[in-house]
UniProtKB/TrEMBL annotation:
Catalytic activity, reaction form: Hydrolyzes proteins with a preference for Tyr or Phe in the P1' position. Has no action on amino-acid p-nitroanilides
Pfam families attached to this UniProt entry: Peptidase_M7
InterPro entries xrefs: MetalloPept_cat_dom_sf, Peptidase_M7
Principal subcellular localisation of the protein: secreted
Domain of life of the organism encoding this protein: Bacteria
Coiled coil, from the record: none
Biological source species: Streptomyces pyxinae
Lineage of the organism: Bacteria, Bacillati, Actinomycetota, Actinomycetes, Kitasatosporales
GO molecular function, one term: hydrolase activity
Protein name per Swiss-Prot or TrEMBL: Extracellular small neutral protease
Tagged with keyword Secreted: yes
């Protein structure tokens, strides 16, 4: 969702933002492939980068590996479940829960569930790159939710979009508002937080075929 920043440059220069929530949450680890292109360009003309795509892919692969390892240890589990923690993003707990609900009602081959020993973690804070999904360089995935971005854009859309990366979807900023992974491309007026039919089908495909391949490697 860092592209969400690209349309804020003019507005941020003249409009005051609401107060940033205070938090004592643990800071997110530095991303393995930080993407400061948006900051370097002043949030203008930013439409993603190879580094961002690489970080998203690494994040998804880390989550799949973590889930596959657990499944190999407990092969009788009824469903493929991705466990998350929102403990380090208390400000966005309701949006995170809503995003999990949205995805759980949209796809059938994978389920998101909050719990201990998580496959990925949500963090919150301030970052010039906006919200993003990445890894800590040690095989663990996390989603960072930026305060300012969530004040300017529909927070559930931001969170559901970033959660889409958990499930393997890339950014597609040129897409319409009806496409969740178009992120900030359609502008702040877009409040859609639901994946479209193509996005739902892709996630189901990834977690049927891609997960099976990952499971074979760790079993």
């Amino acid at each position: 969702m860092r592209h969400l920043k690209s349309v804020l440059a003019a507005a941020l220069s003249t409009a005051a933002l609401v107060a940033v929530p205070a938090t004592t949450a643990t800071a997110a680890p530095a991303p393995v492939a930080p993407t400061s292109v948006a900051a370097a360009q002043g949030y203008t003309a930013y439409a993603g980068s190879p580094q961002e795509a690489k970080a998203n892919k690494a994040f998804f692969e880390a989550v799949v590996k973590s889930v596959a390892e657990k499944r190999a240890a407990n092969p009788s589990a009824a469903a493929v479940t991705v466990v998350y923690s929102s403990a380090n993003a208390p400000t966005f707990r309701s949006q995170i829960a809503r995003s999990a609900q949205i995805w759980n009602s949209s796809v059938s081959n994978v389920r998101l569930q909050e719990g201990g020993n998580p496959d990925f973690t949500y963090y919150e804070g301030n970052d010039s790159r906006g919200s993003y999904a990445s890894t800590d360089g040690h095989g663990r995935g996390y989603v960072f939710l930026d305060y300012r971005q969530n004040q300017q854009y529909n927070s559930t859309r931001v969170t559901a979009h970033e959660t889409g990366h958990v499930l393997g979807l890339p950014d597609h900023y040129s897409g319409p508002c009806s496409e969740l992974m178009s992120g900030g491309g359609p502008g702040p007026s877009c409040t859609n937080s639901q994946p479209n039919a193509q996005e739902r089908a892709r996630v189901n495909q990834l977690w049927q075929n891609g997960f099976a391949a990952a499971l074979a490697k760790v079993s």
